[in-house]
Amino acid sequence: MFMLICQRCAKLESEMRTFVFGLMICLASVGVSDDTFPRFRGADATGVADDHPRLPTQWNAEDNVAWVADVEGQGWGSPIVVGDRIFVSSVVADEPNVEPKSGLYLGKGVRDPAKGIHHWMVYCLDLNTGNQIWKRESHTGRPLVPRHPKSSYAAETPATDGERLFVLFGDLGLFCYSLDGDLMWSKMIDPKKTNMDYGAASSPVVHDGQVIVVYDNQEDSWITSLDAKTGQQRWRTERSETASWATPFIWENDLRTEIVVPGKQKNRSYSLAGDELWSFDGDMSILVIPSPFAAHGMCYVSSGYVGDTHRPTFAILPGASGDIANDGDLSEGDLSDGDFSNSEFIQWYQPQASAYNTTQIVYGDYLYTVYDQGFMTCHNALTGEEVYGKQRFSPKGSFTASPWAYDGKVFCLSEDGLTYVVKAGPEFEILATNPLDELCIATPSVVGGKLLIRTLTKVYCITDSK
């Protein structure tokens, strides 16, 4: 039975805080900007797009497809968009290597760097036609580190501030280009051994003139800020984490702006100067991949490795400092003893409500979780109460891409390229299934009336043809 622990309103200050943020509940999740898609999961990192009459419910490789662009090499970053330009990264290998395939690997990884010379590439495509505007080769050489067999040496989603393009190849370096493809600066990364030799995957984020990068590994983990114009390091903070790949989240709440990064040892928040604001041990999964995001005035943090019995989701209120769960203790291994009710800032907690790879989505008042093994759950986003338990997708599929939403529907893209269209609300109902019949790991992007889906070899621009 799921255990639900809500905030205990023991102090007047805590009660007032809950009241203030309760007033925000009536606000739905803010959608991504209509003309830009600047980072992983969009401008606000929620995956919720503005409704648009041209955004379709149904498609396949031919129907409702405005154009299809071939993309050489392999990359799992989402397409990002500025104006009429799309940017994607990729790595092209001169020799054949391990081909990615769908399904769980359960620890079976590639233990040696990939063979042959590789080319770390950046492509700019025209949003209206799919034609290539420019391409740049950021680096040429042999990989120095192994990678997950399903991953890529271009696993990260680029980011932009609207003037510059920031392309991170996680174990290699960060490259800054103008939108016209001029290299403005680059910062190489000293590659380190990662857990199970899986390689890096956390994407960069940009805020107020600085680029934030997290590199958790088994030797020297850190979070750093680089000046967006010059690439000069503003600050660097060491992290005692070894096995997390989540993209950091810039949480702009009513009290302050902070950088939230989950981790196996502790979930942490940093100031824009790199100082730790708060942290807590949530007994997270041994591998931490889902990225934080905010909705209804709360920040959602989760992790859910398939082999763990504790796969938690936390809803956190703003304004915290220090250890926000000092009365929570899961160290004895008895999950029934885990108690976060004394925390003023953990609004609610569910011990078994997170996926392994995919990031959850809050759409309206509901929190949806798409599990790698092919099912979905729904919880009340405000209280954590279960709305419906595990519902199996049919036909079956496995999932790495995170869900997105618009027009009263939640969209879930399987690794086999099949998108399940699920009706938003308290009952699970599949409205349509849309096949592309190619491996899909990247999370799609939505801009205006266009849905961009990246497959193993292509980028599809999908829009209602009517």
From TrEMBL:
Coiled coil: none annotated. SUPFAM superfamilies: Quinoprotein alcohol dehydrogenase-like. This is Outer membrane biogenesis protein BamB. Residues 122-244 form the Pyrrolo-quinoline quinone repeat domain. InterPro entries: PQQ_rpt_dom, Quinoprotein_ADH-like_sf, WD40/YVTN_repeat-like_dom_sf. Pfam families: PQQ_2 (PF13360). It comes from Rubripirellula lacrimiformis.
